[in-house]
Every structure is written in structure tokens, then in C-alpha cells.
Amino acid sequence: MIGHRGAPGYRPEHTLASYRLALAQGADAVEPDLVLTADGVAVLRHESDLTRTTDIAVRADFADRPWRVEALTLAELKSLRATERWPARRPGSARFDGYFEVATLDELLLLLADESRRRGRRVGLNAELKSCELPAEAQRLEDTVLASLRDHGLDHVHAGVVLQSFDPLSVRRLRERTPLPLVQLVEGAGSPLLTPAGLAEVATYADVLALDVPALLARPGLVGPAHRAGLGVLAYTVRHDDPDGPAAVAGRVQALVEAGVDGLFSDQPDQTLAVCAAY
Ligand code: G3P
Ligand code: CA
């Protein structure tokens, strides 16, 4: 059970409060998305545009600044407040608009170290390096993330850390530089990476395949061949506030478990765990 952006069904995504709640709800691991600031700090954000998840659009002091992570320093980002992406759908989370800061990878690593000590075993980290337009930017992000993991003593196979990206070139570069398990993220049931040849190729540089829920539900028979190619399979993302309703979501979770997936990313880890426990 991987808390996707923490537990964003209940707290604004990617805030430390969201990650704390995911861990309190029993998530085995959490998944941050990583983007670099102008001064080269890895922060937890899904996209560089800050308008949907912070108060930047209503801040007079940012009126003449670009509203993008890579254009702002960490100090500037820290002066913003996190907000709920989907306030109508998640009023319980929107209640916390303005309470929390944008968080850094280093802050999350310290939080996970505390939780690992409390549990007496490692809490997992599935860190996604967000795709960049230019290879040089992607490599700068890779350098920064690996340096941070090394600083925290986490660049080894027993650290509970997994690195993931949609960009095969980034995953391949990481393979050359770290012993950490790597996840190739794939979107869509028709991806060429899901053909027998594609799976065999992915298995040469990655350890796990993560595929979106609709694609896995459309092709549950993919899990067996992926496993036989030597790849674990994860499904993203379970959302219990889906407009289709809770019974439909529970049915999807059960279908994914029956298909044999090795893990689920969820926006509401407590509800996904409850479905799995009742099943
Ligand atoms: O890693 C699975 C999932 O997080 C990828 O999609 O857009 O939520 O980062 P996204
Ligand atoms: Ca992600």
C-alpha cells in the first residue's frame, strides 16, 4: 500500500501533513513526485505549475513572478501555502488550505526515518523523478536526488527506497548509477513497453512496472507475463472519491488484487486497506 502524494484525499497533496497521515493510516510506503527549484532543491510537487496546489495566484507579492517551481527559490516556495487541488471533491482536505508549506525531499526523508524508527522496520519510499523537457534538466534532478539519498545513507538496496520515472532514458541512466530498485512508469494499455518484446526490454534496466488502473483493468492478463519477465507490477492510482462511487472503486481494487498486482498507489490508504482487509 503506497500513499500516493501522501494521503491527499484528506490533506493537501505532498505536504508533510499528508505524508504523516498516510503513515498513520498504515501505508507501507509513500510516493512523492520530485521537481527542482531555481536553486536546485528537490521539492515535493506533481507539476511545476503552482496555481492548482498553492495560494500563489492570490498572492500580491508573486504577481510579477513566474508561477513555476523551477523559476522560484526554495525560500520563495516556502513562503507559499499549500492548497487542495480538487476543493469541491475534497472539502475535508480543502479545510486545511493555508495551513502547510511546500515540503522538500530532505524533510520527507527525515519524516520517514522517524517513522521507520517508530515501527522498527523501514518505511518504503517510491520517489518519482518528474519528466523534464531537456535531458540536462533530467540529469540535474537525478544528480540531486541521488546526492540527497546518499546524504541520508539511503542509496543501497536495503534502504526501502525505489526510484521511478515515466522517462525510460532517465530510468536507464539511474540503472548505471544506483543499486536501488527502479520502476518504469507506463501509461495506457497500448504502450509498446507492454508487448512481450517491450517487457523483456524493460526488464533489462528496471525491476518493476507501474501501470495506470484503467489499463490494468482492461488488460489484467498483463500481470502474468510481466512477472515472468522478472518485473513486479504496481497499479496507480486508486481514488475512493471517484465519481463512480465507493462500490465501483472497491470492485476495482478487488479486480487488481485478483489480477496479481504487487502493490497499489492510493489517495486514501485507509480506505484501500479496508477494502483489501474485507476482501
Ligand atoms: O507513480 C504512479 C503515479 O504517481 C504516476 O502518476 O501523475 O500521479 O504522478 P502521477
Ligand atoms: Ca507520481
TrEMBL record:
Pfam families: GDPD. Residues 1-276 form the GP-PDE domain. GO terms for biological process: lipid metabolic process. One of its GO terms (molecular function) is phosphoric diester hydrolase activity. InterPro entries: GP_PDE_dom, PLC-like_Pdiesterase_TIM-brl. This is Glycerophosphodiester phosphodiesterase. It comes from Nocardioides anomalus.
